[in-house]
Amino acid sequence: MSLYQKLIKVMTERNVDDYVKLLHEDAEIIFHKSGNKFTKNEWAEMVVGIMENPKFVNDASRCIYENDEILVSHDFMSYPDDTKEAVMLVCMLKDGQIIRMETGATPLN
Description:
Elements (H helix, E strand, L loop, with lengths): L2 H11 L2 H6 L1 E9 L5 E3 H13 L4 E10 L3 E9 L5 E11 L2 E11 L2
Parallel strand pairs: 1-6
Antiparallel strand pairs: 1-2, 3-4, 4-5, 5-6
């Protein structure tokens, strides 16, 4: 199973533990829009709230490209405040895990 498929599976199942296992111990998560940066542990704490909220929904996703070094996907997301965004996700990979994740989002409302 590709990393993209694993990512979609854990997000669909809202499985925080398995999601966190996809992140390398030295992972860095970056939000392009705000410039905020998070460590694996900081991001894992946020993911709990995201996964618990039924109004956080991945409406559609497609893998643009994936190999052993990079994963690029495009998603349409709905959020608890009833906004929607198109989200580009770029993940640099190391040892089969995400070492660096960056998102770029465009509001759709």
